[in-house]
Design brief:
Elements lengths: L1 H17 L11 H11 L2 H7 L7 E2 L10 E4 L30 H7 L2 H17 L4 E2 L23 H16 L4 E7 L12 E3 L2 H8 L1 H9 L4 E4 L3 E2 L2 E2 L4 H11 L5 E3 L8 H6 L28 H8 L6 H16 L14 H14 L1 E5 L21 E5 L24 H11 L3 E5 L9 E2 L2 E2 L10 H14 L2 E7 L22 H11 L3 E6 L14 E4 L7 H9 L36 E3 L8 H4 L8 E5 L2 E5 L19 E3 L3 E3 L2 E8 L5 E11 L10 E10 L4 E7 L7 E3 L4 E3 L3 E8 L7 E7 L1
Parallel strand pairs: 2-3, 3-4, 4-6, 5-7, 5-18, 6-9, 11-12, 11-15, 15-16, 16-17
Antiparallel strand pairs: 1-2, 7-8, 10-17, 13-14, 19-20, 21-23, 22-23, 23-26, 24-25, 24-29, 27-28, 29-30
Beta-D-glucopyranose binds next to loops.
């Protein structure tokens, strides 16, 4: 006993000697360290630590040896270094990164293990590049296919994005790098993002737009969150009392730091009182240079200090902000378990390729010609072509550059054409390429150059004629088009202007399909688009923007080395008018005089598409406003959750024992594959208006040819509840619920019932 006490004393002395100050002792409880550091800081040091000192860094406390924070975009790779006070690249030669697939692709894997892999790998890159805060992931909900930044987010469904964001955040933070979940909240469009004022019901807020943020905070334990640019209920998101104080801190118990979007703070008083902790990017409007003393002029800099000195405001709020920032520093830049990371490693390339291939969605795959012919994909196997014609600008266009703040300086990027060429060579196939159309000609973006000169002076007629002729001469055509991250084509700061594909692609695809029926359409985009040629082509693949390993991953799927298993994270409707946000005129999108009302309420994505076939409109009032939801005139072209495979699966009967739902699933085809089993809950009767059904669980299952597995789901209380705005509580109606199980939101053949007592 005596020996033990002596040992404890010795160890304590040792620790005290090694770390004379508590805040420097990594073994001391974090709150003690925070209070100790706070107690040693001067007023000026406290003010300094809550705002930026350069475009992407904030200071620590130099006198106390507390390092600052380096932030980085996010969310698909580690952004190149920019100059201290300019957006231009700094011109370093050691700051290239691995570009990972965009988050729509990650969501399309429907595989939380992929999100964990993603988080771990990207954080290793952040570590190697000396970054502490990764500005991502983004979980704004896919409300309209025009949103320029949908490619950075995880789709239309709150449950799917919650399930995917949690492991992403955990993977990042396991490395001592903070995730900064963005953009909190309701930044669901780029048009007017700095001014638009969003109004919606509390139910839509809690049931649709907040769940992924809540999951990131409460389950993922995110260390930071980024306030959005827009206004909500008339107040800017970066100092929105209800969002940041009542919900984030009050209801969710967030103990991390609220970081502003770059230039998102616009009022000192509100920023002081309404929960903003760390101000970035002010005075720059995101584009132009700051003034010489710009950082002192930040809303939370001198203006705040002067208010304190004049006695207009106390220091209680300031101390809380400093605590939140210190906590972030101790968790990241002073985290003793933080490793050194690695950059562009083999393992990162492999992770990027695996995630990309797993997120690619096979939308359609039919046979051409003879009765017993197999579907045209994969390319290899019987009926394989000898000459393949690749058509389309996206087959050669560098896509890691562009799109806004997520633009990257990738160490390399395998284009689709390159990937296809490499793989086809192994099969002895000949690959030819023609451009087909001219969209974006490459060049410079935000000081980042694509290094590509894609100018082509030929007319559209000449390009089409060349492509059609070449298509006639080939055994198979792979059309590779879509959007391209140029302005209005999936880019930050501006929305798309139309739902249709740009650059005359629709006509070109039809012409190619006519010239050669063996035409597969492969689309790179982060958004849905119209497909007037849908019936004219036998195969369609949605291949996102997949980063450095784009071409390899695409070839993996096309040639059947990877069996596709991606499923859509959003609904693809035939026309823009088929989306609920586009049925109420400008007030619902893009807003009138900067006012916007989410008039479709809860009926976003498949929640709306599921109303197809109803005779009458849904009419109800909520939060004192009347809602009229007219049923859609068309079914989706491809439903939420849809995705094909090169094998086939059969679901057995579902059974329920107490709260355990079981079913069998069998691979009935000839090759290994993965299927996503999706569980939706549908109330039979409800005391309030409710969506027809909602995704509440899913499982990705890998099966060998002929293999059968049992899948089980536990029904939990939260699967049945809805948010009662009046009571401000989650409630559950007693009674019968149908549980639908299937492999897409429009394909749920299994049904069981469950009664909530
Ligand atoms: C974007 C953020 C980004 C930040 C820093 C802003 O314009 O909205 O997503 O992290 O810039 O680049």
């Amino acid at each position: 006993m005596k020996h033990l006490s002596l040992l404890v004393l010795a160890l304590t002395l040792c620790a005290t000697t090694a770390f004379p100050q508590v805040y420097l002792n990594p073994n001391a409880p974090i709150e003690e360290r925070v209070e100790d550091a706070l107690g040693r800081m001067t007023l000026q040091e406290k003010i300094a630590i809550i705002h930026a000192q350069s475009k992407f860094s904030s200071p620590g406390v130099a006198r106390l040896g507390i390092p600052g924070l380096w932030c980085t975009d996010g969310p698909h790779g580690i952004r190149a270094e920019v100059k201290w006070d300019e957006w231009d690249q700094a011109g370093w030669t050691n700051d290239s990164c691995m570009a990972f697939p965009t988050l729509t692709c990650l969501a399309a894997t429907w595989n939380p293990e992929m999100a964990l892999l993603y988080g771990r790998n990207i954080a290793e890159e952040a570590l190697y590049r000396g970054k502490n805060v990764l500005l991502g992931p983004g979980v704004n909900i896919y409300r309209t296919p025009l949103n320029g930044r949908n490619f950075e987010y995880m789709g239309e469904d709150p449950y799917l994005s919650s399930a995917m964001v949690v492991p992403y955040v955990q993977g990042v933070q396991q490395n001592g790098v903070a995730a900064c979940v963005k953009h909190f909240a309701l930044n669901d469009q780029e048009h007017g993002r700095h001014v638009v004022n969003v109004t919606l019901t509390d139910r839509a807020l809690y049931e649709i737009y907040l769940p992924a943020f809540r999951a990131a905070v409460q389950e993922g334990q995110a260390w930071s969150i980024m306030g959005a640019y827009n206004r909500i209920w008339g107040q800017y998101a970066c100092h929105n009392h209800r969002l940041l104080i009542d919900i984030l801190r009050g209801e969710w118990g967030f103990d991390g730091a609220v970081i502003s979007d770059w230039g998102g703070v616009s009022d000192t008083d509100e920023a002081i009182h309404n929960g903003m902790d760390l101000e970035f990017g002010s005075w720059t409007d995101g584009l132009t240079e700051g003034r010489s003393n710009s950082y002192d002029a930040y809303y939370l800099a001198m203006p705040y200090l002067e208010k304190i000195q004049r006695g207009e405001v106390g220091t209680e709020e300031l101390d809380d902000k400093v605590r939140n920032v210190l906590r972030l520093i101790f968790r990241t830049s002073m985290n003793p378990n933080r490793g050194f990371g690695s950059l562009c490693s083999e393992a990162h390339a492999q992770a990027a390729r695996t995630i990309a291939a797993e997120g690619i969605v096979l939308l359609k795959n039919d046979a051409v010609g003879k009765k017993n012919a197999r579907p045209i994909l994969p390319i290899t196997g019987d009926q394989s072509p000898t000459t393949i014609l690749v058509v389309g600008e996206n087959a050669i266009k560098q896509m890691t550059v562009g799109g806004g703040s997520s633009s990257l300086k990738a160490k390399y990027e395998i284009s689709p054409l390159q990937g296809i060429r490499e793989r086809a060579a192994q099969e002895g196939m000949e690959v030819r390429y023609v451009r087909g159309y001219v969209g974006d000609i490459g060049g410079e973006y935000n000081g980042v150059t694509t290094g590509q000169d894609l100018r082509d002076e030929r007319t559209a007629e000449e390009l089409t004629a060349e492509a059609v002729q070449a298509a006639k001469e080939a055994d198979m055509v792979l059309y590779i088009g879509g959007l391209n991250k140029a302005d209005h084509q999936d880019a930050e700061g501006c929305d798309r202007l139309q739902y249709e594909l740009p650059y005359g692609q629709d006509q070109l695809i039809s012409a190619l399909a006519k010239a050669n029926p063996n035409t597969a359409v492969i689309m790179l985009s982060g958004n849905a688009f119209a497909m007037p040629w849908l019936k004219e082509v036998p195969a369609i693949i949605q291949a996102w923007y997949n980063g450095s390993e784009t071409g390899h991953a695409l070839a993996d799927v096309l040639f059947g080395d990877v069996n596709p298993s991606g499923h859509l994270p959003f609904t693809i409707m035939p026309a823009l008018e088929d989306y609920p946000a586009h049925q109420y005129g400008d007030i619902a999108y893009p807003g009138v005089d900067n006012e916007e009302e989410y008039k479709e309420d809860l009926f976003v994505g498949y929640r709306y598409a599921d109303l197809y076939g109803r005779k009458k409109a849904l009419r109800y009032t909520a939060d004192g406003r009347s809602f009229v939801i007219n049923p859609p005139k068309h079914k989706p072209l491809f439903a939420f959750g849809h995705g094909l495979s090169y094998t086939t699966f059969a679901l057995g009967k579902a059974a329920i024992d107490n709260r355990t739902v079981s079913l069998t699933i069998r691979n009935t085809g000839a090759r290994e594959g993965q299927q996503v089993v999706q569980l939706y809950v549908a109330p039979r009767k409800a005391s309030v208006v409710r969506p027809v059904k909602e995704l509440k669980a899913f499982r990705k299952v890998r099966l060998q040819a002929g293999e059968e597995q049992t899948v089980q789901f536990e029904l939990t209380d939260d699967m049945f509840r809805y948010f009662d705005a009046g009571k401000h509580e989650w409630l559950t109606d007693r009674g019968t619920y149908d549980i639908y199980i299937g492999t897409a939101s429009d394909n749920t053949p299994l049904k069981i019932t469950y009664t909530v007592q």
